[in-house]
Amino acid sequence: MMEYRIEKLGTAGDGLATGPVFIAGALPSETVRATPIAPDRATLDAVLTASPERVAPPCAHAADCGACALQHWALPAQAEWKRGRIEAALRRAGQDVSVTLAHQSRPGTRRRADLSVLRRADGAITIGFHGPNGVLDIPDCRLLHPELLALLPRLADAMRSLSGFNARADAAINMLDSGPDILLRLDATLTAHDTQRLAWFAEDAGIPRIATRAGIAVQRAPVHHAFAGRRVTPPPGAFLQATADGEAAIIAAVLAALPAKRKRGPIIDLFAGIGTLSFPLAELAPVLAFEGAADAAAALDAGARAAGGRVTATRRDLFRQPLLPAELKPATTIVLDPPYAGAADQIAQIIRAPGAPLVYVSCNAVALERDARTLHAAGYRASGAAVIDQFLWSPHVEAVIGFTPPRASR
Questions:
Q1: Which range marks the domain in which residue 221 is found?
Q2: Does 363 qualify as catalytic in the annotation?
Q3: What is the pLDDT of residues 225-270, one digit of tens each?
């Protein structure tokens, strides 16, 4: 064992001591005793001098579950750390801007989950997150919405008798406006009896739809979700913001980041998904929305047509085929909400375009720093940044940043 003084937290939420040595469970300013297990990693044995921000984890499963890395840290301190990470990333990129904390979701509000399902040797079913010791039941999870959490034992009971589930599966659940929407990724093929069993479960639990990778297994009612009052039918397993309040905060931050004076013309929404931002933006101006996933683009297109045409949806793989400067030219503002990898290729085309203001929605501080550095070199300047923390007790952080183009900066 060795003693370490923790200087700060690493990006994964581990305590970082000189070396560097990463120690999971340790907090900044603490002195700890830990056992080295690799040149850059040690296992926490004892906290000798505790941080004043250390708290008792609210969940009994915190050490074993695998979903929450930071339950031993007070939520206000976590929020400030996340805000600081975004501010530091932007400053390293040359962007000197004030970063505010716009929102921190409350416990028990997470409305989507991707869970592991395990059939044990005795036939019992375990549904939970995949922790260091395997899949763990989470009967009193502090993250999940109570309605979603209450569904899990009933889902386990329904899956127990399925012939199309041998040993391991995954269950992606979205709490849509129409009710729970379930996508099962099974390790075998459903039989007719399996489908009937799932239909009984859906009827009893009030679930409109259950799908597998092979297609829709049960559809007992229409599936819908609304953005700015416009209904969309999300595909099974569709991306949805983690909490309803977090989604509202992201939308509000995007709208606030739009330039106060906008020319007449369309807003271009890149990586539009199923329309989370497209439909709120369409209340201000026509929107040209681009999305690469076929099922999401189809759902967005159908919802846009039903809503009356303020959103024009186009399927396009923006990694393989980013919009070119001539295609970006009509935009009065560009809204960019890329996946975790960021949007290096699309940014490269944006800086060659005539110069519309840009609103960047980030879910990865590392990718944000890279893209913000490219923008800074091209003369774009950050005009404001808001942090949204909807992944409690995790190092994951999201932010909305407005960028002013070079011509407007001069």
A1: 112-225
A2: yes
A3: 999 999 999 999 999 999 999 999 999 999 999 998 877 899 999 9
